[in-house]
Specification:
200 residues; mainly alpha; 80% helix
Length: 200
Amino acid sequence: MAEDQETRQTFDTKNDGLYAVLHVIAMFGSIVFVIGSVYLVTSDMVSLHGQTTAAELVDFSAKLKFTFRYTHPSVAFLLFMVFNVISKRIFGNEYKLAGLDPQVQNQLDRSRRLGTANAILQNSLEQFLINVFSQLALITYLTEQETLKVIPLLNFLFFVGRITFWLGYPKLRGFGISATLNVNVATVGYVIYKFITVQL
């Protein structure tokens, strides 16, 4: 019994080390992905703005409408996460734990899955609010052409980051965390810089 427990602890320790390495690799991978995406969009090799032209974004109200339209995929993701939480409340899961009463087992499992779904939803909602409000501040400093490229790019990166965060949660969420958080930090940092240099 003691030997089995020691073997299990050794196995868990090795797995934790592997996950830590994968987490770091994923974070660096996300940085490469973000930089590559920025390069492709800013060099006009990839267009994310559809049929919209810079001439349509001549005033703040037009930029505002353009920005809100591009938040829809992220809103749809949040709605999906809400339904994910609801499904965990209703259906729970089917994992079995040996030696437990089926009723207790189902209760524990449902609680674990519900906790995971809630954590993903809460983190995504927090990042979404930062993302949207930073974009609203950002468009006050961007030209029409910059808005045309930057806003779709920010929303694309946020959406990809959240999808990969959800799919990799909890141990392989490094790519998603980094892709979302780094972009939000960079956006907020740029807005603060412009506020200091332009407004003060």
